[in-house]
């Protein structure tokens, strides 16, 4: 049985290497936390606000913690996680440990940033949710298309056109709902364009998407500088304001985060559920997934592959158009050229990170939304380090997580592959 | 249901795949369709199934003319087809694959009703003795079970005409027998079956009627009672065929391939090859027999540098193999892989490009950074002629060639350069008798030139026809090496099923009668060889 022994040794060898890297990494992170985050905040306190708005029904006291001690404590947890990892407490626990380390790192960072100041924790969470809206819509758009086998990298352009159309239509009509409808129609139209190029004319899907992105950026920039500047009334839409759901909205912490939002956030929650059920529990979803995995097999059982793809790409376009309306009707209240700032591409990353599932994509969007919200908070707090640099921390955490996922997430097998009959 | 095809013609750019084909299948009949690779069998069936539209001709069901715009129409008309390449979604469960297209839903909500679908599947599979776990994922199932899923899929749709396009190419002999039982019981129940295969003994065993296609046309029809393997082979190919290779005794010299203590893991991390030792000498053919999935694939991958071994060593002509396929090629190893479309060819590339896939960077095909088109075309032209590769031109997509001709492209590429070791996995899977004869002859020729040859095959007849030494592989180990004189299908069958060498040799005299339970791996002689 020498061979079996050798086998075991080699197996162990490989796993040990990986676990060591992670374990040592956690301990290094803990040391960095102590040195860089814990170093200059001796004796300070970090104050986290738990209330939002002028007169909460049930007011909560602020959460006040000693800054340095908290950072040291969190660093200790990280170091402990590293030791556990090194001692091979169990191969299965690595993802949990990674998650713990990520959370500790973020918490320590916030403690450091709030040292000697006050930061509204609930406000940060609420903003995270709002900032994740366009990303999540972009991710839903991407996954609707890719589940049927068409790569959609035109999400960015669709968001942008949706934002523009919503602003103009809502301004003209003086009605937000008209703006939403226009955004959905324009997004759907771009989806149709992508579908025709990719499905009918077999244009490379990446190129077709890029063409749409460039076209959308150019067209909206042109129209906004030529038309909207000249006629500012066209760029002054009404906005969706946050609606507090009676009762639920008054619950401390949860209320302001989840139940005091604009239409977009509520729509996002509904869509997570709807897409999840449609994709995984209905006949439509089963067929869509079959088309995205093995279109020829789908065809041999009588499914119309081309039609399925058309429908999904148009739906994906409508989804992105809807998400685009958030920028003008849910957020700023007017259109600026290039205002989507890459959210469509981040949405694509969220879709991949989320494993092409709506629930996963939503949580991935939250991570990116958190990064966005954090940037915003930090520039208000004025922490002394350029916020762009600080911002890298959550992204690095994300990259670490994604790197850990490599080979685990699986894309639809026929994603991006054109389908030809005969 | 009575099925009639009348004057079916189907043309592809540069090829007439079917030309005026007539075919009648009576209810409850098992109708075998024979023909060389590229004769147009799959094309004809795809026309019948609505995947291709015929250029001429008509389809009649029970006397009524039908046109199928897509497979949905054909399914609705009661036609079911098990394709040459499985049409299953790997990440779906058995239930999802079977109900796809004819889903059970809860009322009119569109929500899937797994419970109803599952119970119908269980009912269908029990009625026909086709056992599957409805909740298993298809990608986790062995090919034999996937085959069963495909058949249940057609039965679930209540097919009256069942098309089986080379269903036995990937099955073990035992699975073949199971399939035949199912076919017989379906036919008894009135289903018409069209059965495509290259294994002539199977045809004689199971068919009621045989139709032979050659180059797109029907060249004859007959019944098993009125014919024999030699006659069928001649009808298919248009000349008489030797079903067993002529082969003198081997004159082995020094070892070219030395494997010692080799252990290899499969994709799922299980030990697939377990401290294996084997030598292959120049001038001999070592045939590795075994039921599929006993480590042959991983063994070959380790030899050709496609998979890093866990431990042990593989030496070719004295130097150690590292996982670097190009180094292995350059050391003089030819590899005919098991899955031609996955590992042997690049579908989407032309025939010519595929013919120089492992030499494209060398003179005369490349000079500096430039590809030498003329040299490539010249070589490809020669190889296409010499190996009789049937293609409209060398610039056609290799993916559109018939399976047999794809295999010839690989053989032509691998055999046309100077080699010391030939490693081939299932070298004749899916090939017609003419091509098998041809490839076997080439392999023996290579041996006689002093090449060391290692062949892995699940076909006992191929192993018996080619091997100078026969190594039986079971659960990752070589459980016995037999001389062809002492190897009988019975003994091999026993060893392949896990019996001890001593038992296999001891219990059974070489020419002894076949015991009723001769080994679970199946012992029925199959394929073109040996039976005469
Ligand atoms: N989609 C296609 N485009 C172009 N030519 C094709 C296509 N499909 C098949 N052909 C050609 O039509 C002919 C018949 O092919 P077909 O696949 O029907 O043969 P077959 O009898 O099934 O062979 P095999 O036994 O190898 O499976 C071949 O010459 C093949 O090259
Ligand atoms: Mg075929």
Task: Walk me through the structure.
The complex is a heterodimer of chains A (422) and B (532). With 422 residues, chain A is mostly helical. Chain A has 2 domains: 13-116, no CATH class; 127-404, ABC transporter involved in vitamin B12 uptake, BtuC. Chain A is 70% helix and 4% strand. Chain A has helices at 2-37, 67-86, 94-113, 121-147, 155-173, 176-200, 205-228, 254-258, 263-281, 283-293, 295-300, 305-332, 343-353, 358-381, 387-405; strands spanning 45-49, 63-66, 118-120, 243-244, 260-261. In chain A, the strands form 2 sheets. In chain A, strands 2-1-3 form a 3-stranded mixed beta sheet. Chain A has a two-stranded antiparallel sheet with strand order 4-5. The longest helix of chain A has 36 residues, at 2-37. The radius of gyration of chain A is 24 Å and the shape is globular. The termini of chain A are far apart. The model of chain A is unreliable at 1-15 (pLDDT under 50). With 532 residues, chain B is an alpha/beta fold. Chain B has 3 domains: 3-237, P-loop containing nucleotide triphosphate hydrolases (Rossmann fold), CATH 3.40.50; 242-332 and 418-532, P-loop containing nucleotide triphosphate hydrolases (Rossmann fold, 3-Layer(aba) Sandwich); 335-417, P-loop containing nucleotide triphosphate hydrolases (Rossmann fold). Chain B contains 18 helices and 22 strands. Chain B has a 6-stranded mixed beta sheet, with helices on both faces. In chain B, a hairpin with a 2-residue loop joins strand 21 and strand 22 (477-482). Chain B is globular and about 65 Å long. At the A-B interface, helix 1, helix 10 and helix 11 of A face helix 2, strand 11 and strand 12 of B. The structure holds adenosine-5'-triphosphate and magnesium ion.
């Amino acid at each position: 049985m020498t061979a079996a022994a050798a086998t075991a040794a080699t197996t162990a060898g490989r796993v040990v290497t990986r676990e060591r890297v992670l374990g040592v990494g956690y301990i290094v992170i803990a040391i960095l936390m102590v040195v860089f985050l814990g170093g200059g905040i001796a004796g300070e306190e970090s104050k986290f606000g738990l209330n939002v708005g002028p007169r909460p029904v049930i007011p909560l006291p602020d959460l006040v913690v000693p800054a340095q001690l908290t950072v040291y404590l969190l660093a200790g947890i990280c170091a402990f996680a590293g030791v556990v990892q090194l001692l091979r407490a169990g191969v299965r626990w690595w993802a949990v440990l990674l998650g713990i380390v990520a959370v500790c790192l973020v918490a320590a960072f916030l403690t450091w940033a709030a040292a000697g100041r006050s930061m509204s924790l609930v406000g940060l969470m609420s903003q995270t949710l709002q900032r994740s809206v366009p990303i999540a819509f972009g991710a839903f758009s991407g996954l609707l298309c890719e589940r049927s086998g068409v790569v959609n990298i035109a999400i960015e352009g669709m968001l942008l056109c949706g934002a523009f159309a919503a602003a103009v239509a809502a301004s003209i009509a003086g009605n937000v709902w008209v703006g939403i409808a226009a955004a959905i129609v324009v997004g759907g139209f771009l989806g149709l364009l992508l579908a025709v190029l990719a499905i009918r004319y077999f244009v490379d899907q990446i190129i077709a998407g890029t063409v749409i992105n460039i076209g959308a950026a150019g067209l909206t920039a042109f129209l906004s500088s030529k038309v909207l500047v000249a006629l500012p009334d066209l760029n002054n839409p009404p906005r969706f304001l946050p609606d507090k759901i009676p009762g639920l909205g008054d619950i401390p912490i949860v209320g302001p985060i989840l139940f005091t939002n604009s239409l977009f956030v509520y729509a996002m929650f509904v869509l997570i559920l709807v897409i999840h059920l449609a994709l995984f529990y209905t006949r439509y979803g089963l067929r869509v997934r079959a088309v995205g995995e093995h279109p020829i097999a789908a065809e041999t059982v009588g499914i119309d592959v081309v039609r399925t793809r058309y429908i999904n790409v148009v739906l994906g376009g409508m989804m992105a158009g809807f998400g685009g309306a958030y920028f003008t009707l849910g957020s700023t209240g007017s259109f600026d050229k290039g205002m989507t700032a890459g959210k469509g591409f981040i949405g694509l990353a969220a879709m991949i990170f989320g494993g092409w599932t709506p629930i996963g994509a939503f949580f991935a969007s939250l991570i990116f939304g958190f990064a966005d919200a954090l940037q915003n908070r930090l520039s208000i707090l004025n922490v002394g380090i350029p916020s762009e640099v600080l911002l890298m921390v959550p992204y690095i955490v994300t990259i670490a997580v994604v790197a850990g996922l490599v080979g685990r997430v699986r894309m639809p097998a026929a994603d991006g592959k054109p389908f030809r009959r005969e | 249901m009575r099925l009639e095809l009348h004057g079916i013609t189907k043309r592809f750019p540069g090829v007439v795949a079917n030309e005026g084909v007539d075919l009648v299948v009576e209810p409850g009949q098992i109708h075998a369709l024979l023909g060389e690779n590229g004769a147009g069998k799959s094309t004809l069936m795809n026309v019948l199934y609505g995947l291709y539209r015929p250029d001429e001709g008509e389809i009649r069901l029970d006397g009524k003319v039908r046109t199928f715009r897509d497979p949905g129409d054909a399914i609705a008309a009661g036609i079911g087809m098990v394709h040459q390449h499985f049409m299953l979604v790997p990440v779906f469960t058995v239930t999802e694959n079977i109900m796809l297209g004819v889903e059970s839903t809860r009322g009119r909500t569109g929500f899937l009703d797994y419970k109803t679908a599952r119970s119908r599947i269980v009912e269908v599979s029990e009625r026909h003795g086709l056992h599957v776990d409805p909740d298993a994922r298809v990608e986790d199932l062995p090919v034999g079970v996937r085959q069963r899923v495909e058949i249940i899929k057609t039965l679930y749709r209540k097919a009256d005409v069942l098309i089986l396009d080379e269903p036995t190419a990937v099955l073990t002999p035992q699975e073949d027998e199971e399939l035949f039982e199912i076919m017989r019981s379906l036919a008894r129940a009135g289903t018409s079956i069209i059965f495509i295969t290259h294994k002539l003994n199977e045809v004689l065993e199971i068919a009621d009627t045989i139709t032979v296609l050659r180059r797109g046309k029907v060249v004859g029809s007959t019944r098993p009672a009125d014919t024999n393997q030699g006659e069928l082979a001649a009808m298919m190919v248009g000349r008489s065929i030797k079903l067993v290779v002529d082969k003198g005794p081997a004159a082995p010299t020094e070892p070219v391939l030395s494997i010692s203590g080799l252990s290899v893991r499969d994709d799922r991390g299980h030990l697939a090859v377990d401290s294996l030792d084997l030598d292959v000498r120049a001038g001999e053919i070592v045939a590795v027999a075994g039921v599929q999935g006993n480590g042959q694939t991983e063994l070959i991958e380790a030899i050709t540098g496609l998979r890093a071994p866990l431990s042990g060593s593989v030496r070719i002509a004295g130097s150690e193999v590292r996982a670097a396929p190009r180094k292995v090629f350059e050391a003089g190893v030819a590899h005919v892989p098991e899955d031609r479309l996955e590992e042997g060819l690049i579908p989407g590339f032309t025939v010519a490009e595929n013919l120089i896939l492992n030499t494209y960077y060398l003179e005369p095909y490349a000079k500096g950074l430039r590809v030498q088109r003329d040299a490539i075309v010249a070589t490809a032209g020669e190889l296409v002629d010499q190996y009789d590769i049937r293609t409209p031109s060398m610039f056609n997509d290799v993916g559109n060639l018939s399976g047999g001709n794809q295999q010839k492209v690989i053989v032509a590429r691998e055999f046309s350069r100077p080699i010391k070791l030939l490693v081939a996995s299932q070298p004749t899977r899916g090939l017609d008798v003419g091509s098998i004869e041809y490839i076997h002859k080439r392999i023996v020729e290579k041996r006689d030139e002093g090449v060391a040859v290692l062949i892995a095959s699940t076909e006992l007849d191929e192993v018996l026809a080619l091997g100078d030494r026969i190594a039986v592989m079971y659960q990752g180990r070589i459980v016995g090496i037999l001389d062809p004189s002492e190897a009988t299908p019975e003994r091999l069958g026993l060893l392949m099923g896990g019996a001890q060498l001593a038992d296999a040799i001891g219990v059974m005299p070489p020419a002894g009668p076949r015991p009723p339970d001769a080994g679970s791996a199946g012992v029925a002689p199959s394929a073109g060889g040996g039976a005469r």
